[in-house]
Amino acid sequence: DAGVIQSPRHEVTEMGQEVTLRCKPISGHDYLFWYRQTMMRGLELLIYFNNNVPIDDSGMPEDRFSAKMPNASFSTLKIQPSEPRDSAVYFCASSIGANVLTFGAGSRLTVL
Amino acid sequence: GQQVMQIPQYQHVQEGEDFTTYCNSSTTLSNIQWYKQRPGGHPVFLIQLVKSGEVKKQKRLTFQFGEAKKNSSLHITATQTTDVGTYFCAGHESNQFYFGTGTSLTVIP
Fold first, then answer.
1. pLDDT value of position B1
2. Is B97 strand, coil or helix?
3. What ranges make up the beta strands (E) of chain A?
4. Whole-number pLDDT of residue B3
5. Is A10 exposed, middle or buried (0-12, 13-18, 19+ CB in 10 A)?
6. Burial of A47 (0-12, 13-18, 19+ CB in 10 A)
7. CB A106 within 8 A of CB A48
8. Chain A: nearest CA to B101, how far in angstroms?
9. A105–chain B Cβ distance below 8 A for any pair
10. Vertex B86 angle, CA B96 and B59, to 5°
11. What is the pLDDT along chain A (112 residues), one digit of tens a residue?
12. Which residues of chain B have pLDDT under 70?
């Protein structure tokens, strides 16, 4: 298995632009999590899905953030409009039964 | 809400010295997991502890889960340069993972 695949690996954009991060979970995993990692705040859970349904989005910082999972093999995290404080590494992770997390390589976002 | 704290935040050791990181939860946990993140990498699962007082070993790494299931520790014996990275504990409760603040380990050759 190729593991959890995230794209892009690096994104540099200007404030106000829309950013879309993508994730392909491991086949057969029924849970998908989006995390954000910064030096100041560590690993923060943004949202998680079970069988493509969003279960808890209380970690989404504000309305500029949205996440979808249209099918079992694809999820997106969108930021519109982006701000410099959104600069971070965004990780997607998947698991079977919300047990052991397998993380993707992450998407490093820089908003200028 | 759920909080998981780790200490120390940073640790520098000479190669060959031992290292310990401690994790404390504000509430009782169903289980606790440990992850390692190499510099520039992503968190990778190391182990899961479920039972009160459980102790597990992986070569030079020893993991403990407290009797009250609110604290845990990771001890590395005779550190090597390959042990460099940040070690996170993650409390597992209600299908969510509450990650600790992490301990960044630097090993000086």
1. 59
2. strand
3. 5-7, 10-13, 19-24, 31-38, 42-50, 53-56, 65-71, 74-79, 88-95, 102-103, 107-111
4. 81
5. exposed
6. buried
7. no
8. 6
9. yes
10. 95
11. 689 999 999 999 999 999 999 999 999 999 999 999 998 888 999 999 999 999 999 999 889 999 999 999 999 999 999 999 999 999 999 999 888 999 999 999 999 9
12. 1-2
Give chain A positions within 8 Å (CB) of B100.
42
* A contact test, residue of B95, B98, B101 with most A CBs within 10 A: B95
Cβ contact, residue pair A105, B101, below 8 Å: no
How many residue pairs from chains A and B have C-beta atoms closer than 8 A? 44
Q: What does the block give as tokens for B89?
A: 């504990």
In Å, the largest CA–CA distance within chain A is 38
Cβ contacts (< 8 Å) between B101 and chain A: which residues?
A: 42
Find residues 8-67 of chain B whose CB sits inside 8 Å of chain A. 33, 35, 41-45, 48
Q: Looking at the partner chain, which of A56, A104, A105 has a beta carbon nearest the beta carbon of B96? A: A56
